[in-house]
Amino acid sequence: MMLLETSKTVQLEDKLDVNKQETRYRNTTPLHHALIERNHGILKLLLVILGSIMRGLGATECDGLNLLEFAVEKSDQRCLTTLLLHCHSKAIVFFMGGWETIIPKHASLVGNVELWDEWERGILDLTRKVLRPIHKLAEAGPQEIIESLLHSGMNVHELDEDNWTPADIAARYHHKELDELLRKDDPDRDLAIHK
Questions:
Q1: Tens of pLDDT along 176-194?
Q2: How many whole angstroms separate alpha carbon 150 and alpha carbon 173?
Q3: DSSP collapsed to 3 states, 110-161
Q4: Over the stretch 1-18, which tens digit does the pLDDT of each residue have?
Q5: Does domain 1-96 have CATH number 1.20.1320?
Q6: Where are the domains of the chain?
């Protein structure tokens, strides 16, 4: 069975350009079609063949959306999870801001423990050099991780480029307990800039 699957994959690789766009106005690729049809098996096969989805995530747009945005709007959670966690797309998705914006804000992904764990690891991974990781984590409100960062001495009063502290961000996303935790020993400052 495995040999048969491998031979089918090799045949597909020879004949199929998974980045090939339709010549009509929508610019869809086979990956877009798999996402529209919510065909998890075909999506996984295409990702294996593709090897690296840099072009698919970035340059290839359909309906004005890159592939990741397209998956959020047109596909289901299973396909989106596969796309986000695929070994060839994880780093690319992260650097494009996908992990930072899509996972905490896409309601259907909230209960997906595997995605959340990967998202948190990515933010805390020193090799990825995420600016102000505690600000990113405050959007989603994972209290235990932030508490461990507090115990390790991370500066929770640091301002980001918009003059927001992690507590400001937690409050903005309605994480009341986290907001209170982060405001302990908060220095006095003018909050009028956020109104």
A1: 888 888 888 666 655 555 5
A2: 20
A3: CCCHHHHHHHHHHHHCHHHCCCCHHHHHHHHCCHHHHHHHHHCCCCCCCCCC
A4: 333 344 454 455 455 555
A5: no
A6: 1-96
